[in-house]
Q: What sequence folds into this?
């Protein structure tokens, strides 16, 4: 049953010289043909639908103050006001560290952006964001797992050590044929070696359990003492917030044999009521995202220079406020790329406007940019994934969403 | 299938896990044992009836939150996290939460009717509310006891109505904040110069009823159906002396209602007819949305959606189409009579083919472990702490979709490592009560494989043997 839903995926041998030669024509010559294999890619999924207009305010749009009412942010320059990006856009004041990154050209903001999903179910929207097809449940595995097969392998690293989910379980985007480990801080006591050996033997006749156990043990080996120390520290912090998970993740990612691809997730973005503006519920969530970004930058050290962190959500929220000072499920939102390898300091948006006639179905921010163009661009230019594979196997039916090739810079 | 394996499936996949003498008791009539649990009401267990009601919890929480907001910034969720480690200072939210956790799991561990109890857990998860929304808090725990338990032997409509009008659901999906733009309250408000915002509907509850509780996401409804249903639902609210209801209450349209109890507020209800799924619903106050629920409760898309979820829970992650068809037909033919629907699952031959069709969730794993050794932990913290550590904190699915019922959600490599660590901790704590080989035989019956049996017989000690039993592929699945 699972088989029929799986996408055909390339085998390494398909990526031979002839295929590459045929494709070089379609890749603009911007010096990305042989990216460094130790590039890092971190994908942060904000589950629950981020309000893009609250995170990145289009304060220069003449309709902004009117349509947003009580949720409109103070103009840049005012005390507690939004943080200016350019003459049109400004960041939510919670995003201080990300604003600092913007100023050194390490943050790229994308707006009026959406996946191909056009309904308003969180669960289908997240499924499609992660499965990489154009329909919910269109694939049982995730686009980032499929992409792993097409990333040039780093020296001394097996494919199954290339990626890691910083969660107990794998998010859909990392599920698939390539074995991927997961890691989350533990408060439970460790198991002694003799018992572990016996469990390995117990699972000897069961591939399902054995393969997972081996992955977990390999991950623990990478995490090593560092991981254990982090666990101990985190149990005193009492939370698994995105910020503390990001700091822990950075310590693994910065190791030379650590994972190159990481996925983290954050919930609680579904702000139907009392969303808040310069303070309140959403402000606190954004501040946590900002701390996570700061933690990644600090923890990655020199590796930050060759890192791209992408932040995306399943869809945006209504332009108008609802009856309870919140917003309902919408369509386009914003997304972020951050890191030393990002060609940042700019906002990419084909701004559709906020006047009633500009809105999608009369209520939502109109999408003018496809998230897949960003995913594909980053995979192609930063992670060295071949463009033809991107269209046939990783994001099927995505010809309309051409990869954006100017999002990152070669390091 | 051999009789003993049928008993294993009945006790472990349909039920919450075999207790020491259960497999022998079920013996030859597994289907009869299951069906006997389905019909009629039950006298509420004293464990449950002594708990505080949703309304009582709401009142306590409002008072505590007020005090807390003044005192500090810390949130109830942080308090609960802390409670997972050790008991802290007096906190009424935490106390109610702990009492609910203790009662729920004591009942799950000790009940003789564990198919019935599993069904109750299933429906609670279907109508999921999550306490990580601060305004819900420990009230999340009461929906199971107040809306699900009393309706398990009735029609789906009865349970649907009870769940959608439950205070925890109303608050979780913001319906007390949804206000008809032409309602009396909105009219008054717009005349007042100091009201800055336009009062309007909040479509959260309407959408999730259609998407998650009845038709399912492909069930054929449109954005207009969502909006009009949400308008019909305006007024489904809770008693509360706080703003913004002060204005509504001054309009004098309702009786005194206990704070935190369900009430219908005429003053915020959007007047006029609504059209939903092509059907015209005239203005009828609260009965307008009730009539919509009635139609949704027997809609073919609802039957198919519910049947698929039940088959996924009781048969396999990818349930056979034949079983889904059978359960959906029972649903439609009986107009959603729940015992008839539940019996139809038992009658699916597809359910009786494997003793390891489903990967246990952390909740299922922990409950089945305690059931197998017939041991009740003396403090709820002992249950809470591993549930949090394994990623399934009680009453906190974090989304109205509830906990995912697929192995892929639970079988990550790190999750397996944490299960092994949990088994070590569990074995240490209960070693005085276990005999690993006997527990394995009593809980797994003929499903216990030769390879695992050998590992258990060669275990170095009782604790190690208990760990191997708990982490064995046989015990990790049902």
A:
């Amino acid at each position: 049953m699972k088989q029929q839903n799986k996408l055909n995926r390339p085998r390494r041998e398909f990526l031979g010289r002839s295929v590459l030669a045929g494709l070089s024509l379609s890749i603009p010559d911007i010096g990305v043909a042989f990216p460094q294999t130790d590039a890092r890619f971190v994908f942060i999924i904000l589950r629950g639908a981020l309000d893009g207009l609250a995170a990145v305010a289009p304060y220069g749009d003449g309709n902004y103050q009117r349509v947003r009412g009580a949720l409109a942010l103070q103009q840049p320059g005012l005390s507690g006001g939004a943080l200016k990006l350019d003459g049109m856009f400004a960041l939510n004041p919670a995003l201080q560290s990300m604003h600092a990154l913007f100023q050194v050209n390490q943050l790229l903001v994308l707006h009026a952006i959406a996946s191909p999903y056009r309904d308003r179910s969180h669960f289908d929207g997240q499924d499609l964001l992660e499965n990489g097809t154009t329909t919910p449940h269109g694939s049982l595995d995730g686009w980032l797992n499929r992409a792993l097969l097409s990333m040039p392998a780093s020296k001394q690293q097996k494919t199954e050590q290339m990626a890691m989910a910083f969660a107990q379980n794998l998010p859909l985007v990392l599920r698939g044929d390539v074995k991927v480990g997961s890691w989350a801080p533990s408060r439970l006591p460790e198991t002694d070696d003799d018992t572990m050996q016996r469990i390995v033997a117990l699972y000897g006749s069961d591939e399902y359990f054995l393969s997972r156990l081996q992955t977990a043990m390999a991950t623990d080996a990478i995490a090593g003492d560092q991981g254990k120390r982090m666990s101990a520290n985190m149990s005193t912090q009492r939370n698994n917030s995105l910020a503390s998970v990001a700091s822990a993740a950075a310590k693994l990612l910065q190791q030379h044999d650590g994972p190159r691809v990481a996925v983290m997730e954050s919930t609680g973005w579904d702000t139907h009521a009392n969303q808040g503006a310069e303070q309140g519920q959403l402000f606190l969530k954004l501040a946590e995202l900002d701390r996570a970004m700061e933690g990644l930058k600090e923890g990655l050290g020199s590796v930050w220079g060759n890192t791209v962190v992408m932040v995306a959500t399943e869809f945006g929220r209504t332009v108008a406020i609802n009856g309870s000072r919140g917003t309902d499920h919408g369509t386009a939102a914003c997304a972020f790329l951050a890191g030393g390898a990002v060609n940042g300091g700019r906002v990419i948006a084909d701004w559709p406007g906020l006047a009633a006639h500009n809105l999608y179905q009369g209520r939502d921010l109109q999408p003018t940019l496809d998230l897949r163009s960003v995913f594909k661009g980053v995979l192609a230019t930063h992670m060295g994934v071949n463009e033809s594979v991107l269209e046939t196997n990783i994001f099927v039916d995505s010809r309309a969403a051409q990869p954006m090739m100017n999002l990152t810079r070669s390091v | 299938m051999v009789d003993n394996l049928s008993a294993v499936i009945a006790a472990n996949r349909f039920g919450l896990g075999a207790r020491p003498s259960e497999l022998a008791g079920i013996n030859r009539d597994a289907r009869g044992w299951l069906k006997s649990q389905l019909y009629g009401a039950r006298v509420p267990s004293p464990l449950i009836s002594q708990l505080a009601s949703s309304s009582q919890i709401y009142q306590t929480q409002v008072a505590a939150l007020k005090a807390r907001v003044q005192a500090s910034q810390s949130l109830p969720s942080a308090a609960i996290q802390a409670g997972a480690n050790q008991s802290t200072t007096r906190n009424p939210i935490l106390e109610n939460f702990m009492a609910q956790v203790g009662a729920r799991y004591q009942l799950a561990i000790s009940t003789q009717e564990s198919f019935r109890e599993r069904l109750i857990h299933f429906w609670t998860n279907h109508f999921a509310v999550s306490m990580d929304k601060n305004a819900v808090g420990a009230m999340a725990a009461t929906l199971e006891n107040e809306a699900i338990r009393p309706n398990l032997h009735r029609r789906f409509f009865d349970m649907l109505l009870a769940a959608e009008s439950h205070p925890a659901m109303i608050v979780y999906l913001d319906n007390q904040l949804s206000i008809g733009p032409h309602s009396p309250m909105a009219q008054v408000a717009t005349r007042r110069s100091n009201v800055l915002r336009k009062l309007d509907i909040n479509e959260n509850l309407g959408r999730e009823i259609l998407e998650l509780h009845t038709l399912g996401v492909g069930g054929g409804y449109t954005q207009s159906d969502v909006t009009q249903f949400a308008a019909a639902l305006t007024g489904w609210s809770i008693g509360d002396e706080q703003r913004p209801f002060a204005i509504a209450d001054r309009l004098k349209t309702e009786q005194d209602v206990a704070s935190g109890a369900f009430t219908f507020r005429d003053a915020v209800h959007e007047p006029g007819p609504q059209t939903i799924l092509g059907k015209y619903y005239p203005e009828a106050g609260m009965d307008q949305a009730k009539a919509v629920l009635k139609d949704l409760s027997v809609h073919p898309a609802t039957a198919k959606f519910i049947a698929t979820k039940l088959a996924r829970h009781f048969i396999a992650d990818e349930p056979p189409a034949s079983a889904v068809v059978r359960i959906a037909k029972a649903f439609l033919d009986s107009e959603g009579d729940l015992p008839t629907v539940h019996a139809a699952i038992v009658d699916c031959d597809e359910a009786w083919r494997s003793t390891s069709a489903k990967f246990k969730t952390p909740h299922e794993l922990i409950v089945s472990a305690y059931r197998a050794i017939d041991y009740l932990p003396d403090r709820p913290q002992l249950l809470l702490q591993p549930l949090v550590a394994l990623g399934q904190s009680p009453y906190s699915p974090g989304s109205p979709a509830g906990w995912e019922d697929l192995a892929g959600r639970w079988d990550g490599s790190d999750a397996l490592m944490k299960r092994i660590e949990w088994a070590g901790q569990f074995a240490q704590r209960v070693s005085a009560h276990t005999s690993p080989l006997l527990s394995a035989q009593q809980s797994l019956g003929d499903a216990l494989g030769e390879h695992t049996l050998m590992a258990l017989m060669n275990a170095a000690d009782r604790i190690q043997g208990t760990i191997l039993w708990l982490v064995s592929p046989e015990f990790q699945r049902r």
In short: Strands of chain B lie at 236-238, 262-264, 274-276, 279-281. The radius of gyration of chain B is 24 Å.
